[in-house]
Design a protein that fits this description.
Small hydrophilic protein, DUF6381
């Protein structure tokens, strides 16, 4: 299995995508676009958690 298809790499990419969408939402001037971006980020995060579990990914334990 190559590194790009590993579950931890996919989770990291999904979470980065969600974070990017949230940042774009913060900078959006149109309220509808802002909400659309936030909704999309939420769906990506939910999918990540559903597929890989809340604790999986790149978060370091404290």
């Amino acid at each position: 299995m190559d590194a790009e298809n590993r579950p931890d790499e996919r989770v990291r990419r999904m979470r980065e995508k969600a974070e990017g969408l949230e940042q774009a939402a913060q900078h959006a001037t149109d309220p509808e676009e802002r909400q659309r971006l936030r909704d999309r980020a939420m769906r990506v995060r939910e999918r990540s958690e559903r597929e890989y579990g809340r604790g999986s990914g790149t978060m370091d334990p404290m």
